[in-house]
């Protein structure tokens, strides 16, 4: 089959890790007889440098005209990069939020899975890790504090900043439906995370999630306050199957969840709209401190490419092959520096990409 993929290398380590994911996809094409055509799209700092803005209409159009979007990471060092001299709405992160909104990517799926081989890299004690864990965070991505009205005003010499957390019931319902659908294909448990003891938006969240749950009698639903969830993730991560939560809580909890898998360099993600279309990116950032050094871990991006094969292109067998190749390379003892351990073989970004591609 022929597919059109929009590629967003982005900033920092983005171009390096996207190159490795593309290498793996090219191998998938060779082995399974597909052909992918790639169109590069500028986003974030890379777009600011060329166009003066972090996202252009043309970039959105190219993304829309593709079957799926594969992205690296965006952003730079906030202290030293000139991008952060610009007003907030023109900075790299604003481009990422704008493309999520423009493509209506309301459902962000972030699987956090502990490979047996990486148990040593997990910062938790053995008795906490137990049999390991396998959860997926379903984060609402186009609402809440990220997209509510914001302003900074000075009144009587005092500066006040306002951000607004808004959700309507439709926005909550559609992400809840996604989470329950995913739970049906997994262990049939949804933990909906909110702050219903304080926030109105969370009380509405809980009510709507309970309504949706009625259509899924086989799925066990529990509610958990976000502060407790942050604690439970390091106390007993094995209890989770699907975590359903709003945008900001999901941002924070997914970084935490990724760290307990051993490295944020392992965590893939998919951002989907109502159709099969999606944008796939690692959950980690652009790591400007290690950009260009050839040491970044490309596995989260390669695993994001596997999610793209599965969710947007319906190429399940091919996605399985990529995931199996990652598993195999870890079993064989190859590690990038972020997951390096005694007795393992340390490799760089390109070498890791080669090792995965060779095993497809
Ligand atoms: C993420 C990132 C983004 C977010 C930033 C870069 C705007 O942290 O994808 O988790 O907060 O959503
Ligand atoms: Mg984040």
Describe this structure in words.
With 360 residues, this protein is of the alpha/beta class. The protein is 39% helix and 20% strand. It contains 12 helices and 14 strands. The strands form 3 sheets. A 10-stranded mixed β-sheet has the order 2-1-3-12-11-4-5-10-8-9, sandwiched between helices. β8 (189-194), α7 and β9 form a beta-alpha-beta unit. The longest helix has 19 residues, at 14-32. The relative contact order is 0.16. It binds 3-isopropylmalic acid (IPM) and magnesium ion (MG). Residues 75, 93, 96, 251 line the site of 3-isopropylmalic acid (IPM).
Architecture blueprint of SSEs:
Layout: E1 2-10, H1 14-32, E2 35-40, H2 45-51, H3 57-64, E3 68-73, H4 92-102, E4 107-113, H5 126-129, E5 134-140, E6 150-155, E7 158-163, H6 169-184, E8 189-194, H7 200-213, E9 220-225, H8 226-235, E10 242-245, H9 247-260, E11 270-272, E12 278-280, H10 299-311, H11 316-331, E13 334-335, E14 345-346, H12 349-358
Parallel strand pairs: 1-2, 1-3, 3-12, 5-10, 8-9, 8-10, 13-14
Antiparallel strand pairs: 4-5, 4-11, 6-7, 11-12
Helix pairs in contact: 1-10, 1-12, 6-7, 8-9, 10-11, 11-12
Bound molecules: 3-isopropylmalic acid (IPM) and magnesium ion (MG).
Order of strands, widest sheet: 2-1-3-12-11-4-5-10-8-9
Largest sheet: number of strands, sense, barrel closure: 10 strands, mixed
Strand and helix order: EHEHHEHEHEEEHEHEHEHEEHHEEH
Strand content: 15-25%
Structural class: alpha/beta
Task: Write a short abstract of this structure.
With 360 residues, this protein is an alpha/beta fold. Helices cover 39% and strands 20% of the residues. It starts with a strand and ends with a helix.
């Amino acid at each position: 089959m022929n597919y059109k993929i929009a590629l967003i290398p982005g900033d920092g380590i983005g171009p390096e890790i996207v190159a490795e994911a593309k290498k793996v996809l090219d191998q998938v094409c060779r082995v399974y007889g597909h052909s992918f055509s790639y169109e590069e799209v500028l986003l974030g700092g890379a777009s600011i440098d060329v166009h003066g803005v972090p996202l252009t209409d043309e970039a959105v159009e190219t993304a829309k005209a593709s079957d799926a979007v594969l992205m690296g990471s965006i952003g730079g060092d906030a202290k030293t990069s000139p991008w952060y001299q610009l007003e907030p709405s023109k900075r790299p992160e604003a481009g990422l939020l704008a493309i999520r909104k423009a493509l209506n990517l309301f459902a962000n799926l972030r699987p956090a899975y502990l490979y047996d081989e990486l148990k040593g890299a997990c910062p938790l004690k053995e008795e906490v890790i137990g049999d390991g864990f396998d959860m997926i965070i379903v984060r609402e991505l186009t609402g809440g504090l990220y997209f509510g009205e914001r302003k900074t005003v000075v009144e009587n010499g005092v500066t006040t900043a306002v951000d607004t957390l808004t959700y309507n019931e439709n926005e909550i319902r559609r992400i809840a439906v996604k989470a329950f659908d995913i739970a049906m294909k997994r262990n049939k448990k949804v933990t909906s995370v909110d702050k219903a003891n304080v926030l109105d938006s969370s009380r509405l969240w809980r009510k709507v999630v309970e309504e949706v749950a009625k259509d899924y009698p086989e799925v066990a639903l529990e509610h958990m306050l976000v502060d407790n969830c942050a604690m439970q993730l390091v106390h007993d991560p094995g209890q989770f199957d699907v975590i359903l939560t709003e945008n900001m809580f999901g941002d924070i909890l997914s970084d935490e969840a990724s760290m307990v898998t051993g490295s944020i360099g392992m965590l893939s993600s998919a951002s989907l709209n109502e159709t099969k279309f999606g944008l796939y990116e690692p959950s980690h950032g652009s790591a400007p401190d290690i950009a260009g050094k050839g040491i970044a871990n490309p596995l989260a991006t390669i695993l994001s490419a596997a999610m793209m094969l599965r969710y947007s292109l319906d190429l399940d067998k091919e996605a399985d092959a990529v995931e199996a190749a990652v598993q195999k390379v870890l079993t064989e003892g190859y590690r990038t520096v972020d997951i390096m351990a005694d007795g393992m073989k340390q490799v760089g970004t390109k070498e890791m990409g080669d090792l995965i591609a060779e095993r497809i």
